[in-house]
Write a structure and sequence with these properties.
The chain is an alpha/beta fold. The protein is built from eight helices and twelve strands. Helix 6 links the parallel strand 5 and strand 6. Bound molecules: fe (ii) ion.
Length: 316
Amino acid sequence: MMVRESHRERFTVGHTTRTRSGDGLITLLHISDLHFGPPFQERVGESLQRFAHQLEPDAIVASGDFTQRALPEQFAAARAYLDRLPSVPIVVTPGNHDIALYRFAERVFHPYDLYKAHILPELDTVTKLPGATIVALNSTAPLRATVNGRIHRWQIDFAREAFQDVPEEDARILVSHHHFAPPPDWDRVAVMPQAKRALDAFTHFKVDMILGGHLHRAYIGNSLDVYSGADREHGIVVVQSGTSTSRRGRAREREKNSLNVVRVDARHIRVTHYMYFDDVQDFVPTSRHQFFRRGRPALDREGQAEAEAIFREDHS
Ligand SMILES: [Fe+2]
């Protein structure tokens, strides 16, 4: 199967052509677990298309599980869907459902052929936006950890290299399908092996935020919630998306669909969690989360003025 050239241009390393506003704001649309195949819900998918075109994000992050059973026709449908999204960089990463689970020979000998042909030829990528570097690491493990995935040591080295020359003020964002830090109440699927090793490394690289999927329920929190790590002054903002278009929502998002809008500027990371509601046939904001970059207001005048304004508001 041929890889269309346009896929490469659109999905691999590149710069957006859009100019950002003066405050360096970046807007990301974070979707996940589309699951083309029987669980995919057409009406929700169309609503998501409308949402994406209205939002006009700087980039879209789709954190894995494009298909339900890694079949050629499911990948083709996912490909056609991605092509209809706004023409901005789309950061992708494979999910465990993008690998054949039951077709043993395929899983063992060429697990990523269909993903590479339809979604992206590369499995680990670096995307540069003005003001942000996004590293996507393939967390699937076709042979061993089929469900909870894994990140290899060489992938940590890949991330280190990608982040090492990033200017201090730029956002460092990591994308992977499986979760490094589960919601505190999550007891269904074990976190990936060596997740703590990865989190320690990402902390060392000063990663601001991790975006993922897999759980089919949203979780917006901080890596320190589940792993205090070596440096408790640098927590990584953890943003998990629920399933954006499938019937497979779980726990608090059972039979629900959700997505996140992430806005990053020099001082803050703001995440809005949207859920799909049938009565309005649209994604509606349900909660907002604001984090200071690097865990607290900056020590400069602007940062201190903001801290004082918040203090006054809380004490009024
Ligand atoms: Fe999934």
